[in-house]
Amino acid sequence: MCSMIPSENTKNISQFEDKSLLIVDDDNPFRERLARAMEKKGFQVSQAEGVKKGLESVKQKKPAFAVVDLRLGDGNGLEVVKEIQSSNSKSRVVMLTGYGNIPTAVAAIKQGAIDYLAKPADADDVERALLADPNSKAAPPENPMSADRVKWEHIHRVFELCNRNVSETARRLKMHRRTLQRILSKRSPR
Q: Domains of the chain, with CATH numbers?
């Protein structure tokens, strides 16, 4: 990963007194990777894998920053965002989702999120969103994923959610089973 290039509307984590970051996501490998990357960037990271643990974590320590997945195994991440904002209105919260659409983006912003990123977001994009000046427009991503990569990521996410069952995944994606098997056997596009 490349280091973030500071711009005039982005602060540095060293400029903040409280560097606490809560990551709430039920995708364990993604959450662990993001936590390690954010620790290297200077954040003091705590993790939660669902709404219940996220709410408990917020009550124990009010985070200055948070990255919250919208859809969690035990509920909606907006509940966690609402709790974070009610306990610390200065918190900077970024909403993550694999299912981005306008109504959920609007709901996240109304609950207090400062930005909304599609999964899988990399640590540089998350850092940029967390540290951006809330009064300025966000810059477009430096290296956005290609459409092929987004499609590949979505198919693999649904495959994992279906417990790696090819038939069930094909049915939910409304595609032929053999077509899905060919896609799953290929490497990820860039």
A: 13-131 (3.40.50.2300), 147-185 (1.10.10)
